[in-house]
TrEMBL record:
Official protein name in the record: Protein DCG1
Protein family per UniProt: Belongs to the HyuE racemase family.
GO MF annotations, alphabetized: amino-acid racemase activity
Pfam families noted in UniProt: Asp_Glu_race
InterPro entries registered for this protein in UniProt: Asp/Glu/hydantoin_racemase (IPR015942), Hydantoin_racemase-like (IPR052186), Iso_Racemase_Enz_sf (IPR053714)
PANTHER family for this protein: PROTEIN DCG1 (PTHR28047)
Record organism: Trametes pubescens
Length: 239
């Protein structure tokens, strides 16, 4: 019997509650050939939420420092993983940093969800948290994929005005209302595939659908995209 593929899901902020919330959302993806393990950035060093350029850099630095002994080949104390998922919806520095130190696949949920959106063949947009991310994610699309509008496929980014932590800390009816409103705006611009642009939004697809205004849309959960894409990458490799 082949060993199960092990993917380490990396929460780059120090909020353990956000890591814990991912388990039930990804549970239906599990099978005997797939093992998901979770990591939370170090408390007291990494920021509790990644909301801007400063917290993004700090989260990458402290998470990398903590993870390096684990991911370095031959120095992980037997805790080998087959792939690493950076569960922060951004053009996060940690993705490139980890790739420099392991031959195992490393993927960010930002990249994974956009690749899946493109595969669906419909104009897509991103619903995210704070306004900072409207510009930052658009710039990330251009850097990674070489185009600001993806040949007309990318309809842009709409923010809810909340931080990642607030997604789980404020009244959920308010959260749903803000997500629905942002969805309505991006749908009005022509998006027919909506990416939930924050790991903290995982499991909130129903709030996205409330904002579609009767338009037929598809909703992509970025963390689920990352897991399924990484599993496929590992299985596709020729040993």
């Amino acid at each position: 019997m082949k060993k199960a593929i092990s993917i380490l899901v990396i929460n780059t902020n120090s909020s353990q509650s956000m890591t814990t919330a991912l388990g039930p959302i990804l549970e239906d993806l599990l099978h005997p050939g797939l093992l998901l393990q979770y990591y939370t950035a170090p408390s007291g060093r990494a920021p509790p939420s990644v909301d801007d350029a400063t917290s993004s850099v700090l989260s990458a630095a402290h998470t990398f420092e903590d993870l390096l002994p684990l991911i370095t080949e031959g120095k992980d104390g037997g805790r080998t993983h087959d792939a690493y998922l950076v569960a922060c919806f951004s053009d996060h520095h940690l993705v490139g940093m980890l790739r420099e130190h392991t031959s195992k696949p490393v993927l960010g949920i930002f990249e994974a969800s956009i690749m899946q959106a493109l595969a669906l063949g419909q104009p897509f947009g991103i619903v995210t948290t704070g306004q900072y991310w409207e510009g930052a994610l658009t710039a990330g699309v251009q850097r990674i994929f070489g185009s600001a509008d993806m040949g007309g496929a990318f309809m842009g980014v709409q923010s809810t005005g909340m931080t990642a932590r607030e997604l789980h800390e404020i009244e959920q009816s308010v959260v749903a209302e803000k997500i629905a409103a942002a969805t309505s705006r991006i749908v009005s611009k022509g998006a027919r595939t909506i990416i939930m642009g924050c790991a903290g939004m995982s499991g909130m697809a129903e709030a996205v659908r409330k904002g579609r205004g009767g338009v037929d849309i598809r909703v992509i959960d970025a963390v689920r995209s990352g897991v399924t894409t990484l599993e496929g990458l590992v299985r596709a490799q020729i040993q």
